Amino acid sequence: MLISKFSKAAGISAYTLRYYEKKGLIRVNRDSAGRRDYSEDDIEWARFIKRLKDTGMLLRDIRHYSDLRYEGDSTMEERMALLLRHREAVVEQQKKWDGYLKNLDEKIHIYQKRITSPSQTSSSAPQHRPD
């Protein structure tokens, strides 16, 4: 299928697909006129590349994974090892973001408490600001 149809099917812009191809992440056959000719199998692969990118996998690691994928089933263990390492990195990022979210929630709670129950201090006393 041509890039315009493939782009819609995969939910990825034609620009991004060309970028993936340029970086060697996806290998695309060409028809007799030299146009890209994507297969149905390429749809899920392109989506997976995007998910790896969205989860912060470095481009060089995606390229390495892609090279291994195109080599075939004999590389499954190495691909799995790459994914396991990336999973660990994603879990670490998730822990960090959970901490950030907890901090934001605590700060929001302070504001909510101060807004709904203003302190009983006199108006002449300096007010503590929750930042």
Q: What is the H/E string?
A: HHEEHHH
Rg over CA atoms:
24 Å
Q: Biggest sheet, open or closed, and with what strands and sense? A: 2 strands, antiparallel
Average predicted local confidence, pLDDT: 91
Q: Assign a percent range to the helix content.
A: 55-70%
Number of discrete helical segments: 5
Count of β-strands: 2
Regions with pLDDT < 50 over 5+ consecutive residues?
none
How are strands sequenced across the largest beta sheet? 1-2
CATH architecture: Orthogonal Bundle
3D shape: elongated
Write structural notes for this entry.
The N and C termini lie far apart (56 Å). Helix 4 (59-71) packs antiparallel against helix 5 (76-116). The chain is mainly alpha-helical and 131 residues long. The chain has helices at 3-10, 14-22, 40-54, 59-71, 76-116, and strands at residues 29-30, 36-37. The protein contains five helices and two strands. The chain has a two-stranded antiparallel sheet with strand order 1-2. The chain has one domain: Multidrug-efflux Transporter Regulator, Chain: A, Domain 2 (Orthogonal Bundle).
